[in-house]
Amino acid sequence: MKELIKKLIETPGPSGSEHVIREVIRKEVEGLADEVRVDALGNLIVRKGTKAEGGMRVMISAHIDEIGVMVTHVDENGFARFIAIGGVAPHTCLGGRVWFMNGARGVIGVEKIESMDKIPGLESFYIDTGATSRENCPVKVGDVGGFERPMLDLGARLVGKSMDDRVAAAVLVESLRQLKETPNEVYYVFSVQEEVGLRGATTAAFGVAPEVGFAVDVTRTGDTPKGAKMEVSLGKGAAVKVRDSSFIADPRVVNWMVNTAEANGIPYQMEVLERGGTDGYAIQIARAGAPAGCVSVPCRYIHSPSEMVDYQDVLNVVKLVTALVANPIKL
Amino acid sequence: MNTNATPTPAPVIGAEQLELLEKLCNACAVSGDEGEVRAIITEQLKDAADEMRTDALGNLLVTKRGKGENRVRVMIAAHMDEVGFMIMEDNEGGIFRFDTVGGLDVRQLVGKPVLVGKEHLPGVIGAKPIHFCKREELEQTIPLETLKIDVGPDNAGKVKVGDRATFATRFTRIGPSLRAKALDNRFGVATLIELVKHAPDNVDLLAAFTVQEEVGLRGARVSGFSLDPDLAIAVDSTPANDLPAWDDSENISYNTRLGFGPAIYVMDSSTIADPRLVKFLAATAEANGIPYQFRQPGGGGTDAGAIHRQRAGIPSISVSVPGRYAHSAAGLARIEDWENTLRLLQAALSQLTPAVLQR
Question: ipTM beyond 0.90?
Fold first, then answer.
């Protein structure tokens, strides 16, 4: 599965520009599914199974967009100013490399830093593509780029950009491979535009109209030196979300996840995330509402170019996701 | 290419269109009270429309059907409302405390003439004169709570709490430019009226004149849900912040520039424009020799922000006429930018086929 994760995280695709990553995933899932379609906003919707006696229509959502940049201005010397697509923190940018959807590449520089005590805002940063003038700059206003960083395999741990949320996309692909029989109609949704406000999952959930659903996403951890306090740690298993700042997971869904993990001997941990939201919220409030939750992959250094996950955690999330939909669901 | 379609004459900006824009800009339609503008549009389109209805929130939804097969159902939204004021409290003698509706800069309000209520009663936003201000007071912003609308005693009885007020600025043409209040978004309204009148046959044009955009895209949300189009375009007016920087450095945050043509959106806080539509509009402009600019990606939002999230998703984009000094007593814009916006949208509509949305 490491190869799949590597392939997915290294493919560029910031919010709104998911066409390349979508095709990469489509190739992985065709042949594993009963139906594959792309909706109006670009969500890749993959169905496995048909509703049998006792089955439900389930939506599982992993977002395939990533944070990135968009060019706002190219100055007369060819330096490109930019804004963030999604939550890009300025302190993660300096020296970073950008890979534009049109193939151009560049490095991020910053204006003179007046005080080492204060991180300048993104408006002080620019992308240097090696151009010398506006005319020979390979990017223009509106062009989109992702951060460039190859995956690092540390054995038990994997590091790379956009583990958020490509690692979950890999989980869904792997689950599709492992799910042989199901009484449920399972919609694996590879959603777009999550980082800018759960926009893809909102319309996908309307289209799928699930009876129950959950997101698969990364979550923060509290296991780093002097980090924010949080119960979740790398290596302690799949995280079952109880709450984040976007929604409160349906208690029946939480119980379903906990019971399934215990029945199958899958290591799990409970998660309360104080800051952050997931597609689970979009599933919960679509149409007349649906019971919704989220299974998380614990991840350090989220929204930096080096997000870290534990490989066993990833495998356990695959097991849990698959076990959740393999049997009749009783909430 | 639809070769059977009868060519529709392209709309132009002449005396008639300018007169209509004048009427629209001078009308008062603060968010939630858009009736005056809706009445003007209804009068303009009653003959051209196939269907016209006002929905539960007050959106005016106008359908103009095309002919032939494979017609694209395209929604174009233009918000009717404008930023302004609401009367909050009667302080007697024709003096009223008020609140702002929509995004207004309180620093810009003092001394501005206003029109209050359905009768457009004249008034002024008053504050303590300089004679009586202490030095420290002069260096501070005047808090909104201490500003008053003064209509004088004669009309005091005609003003009620809850009445809206707008800036009193009258529409003025200055050579190639226009100066008016509410160019955001009467430009869009006037553009959409022309598009309905000249709608080409290859599309079903679903025109939504929306309410309450300035307070959170509320009208667009429900109109997008009910119209459920194949794609949507919001036509609006966006600020041009194109004055030279004070220190002679390159202005890198102009948003848009006057004279550079319609502003095509790529991204704002509410929407990432559908890349297929960005490409289509830019290509249409280029093929027809129409100048255009990309609005600098950044903050702000348009009706597209609400529309694209409705139902199972609606591919959406925005196009705006650039205008200086938006959300103030007087904006300033160029007639040519408006005309080019209209030309671009007309060309885009007439060249729109289902193939545009192919992935």
Answer: yes
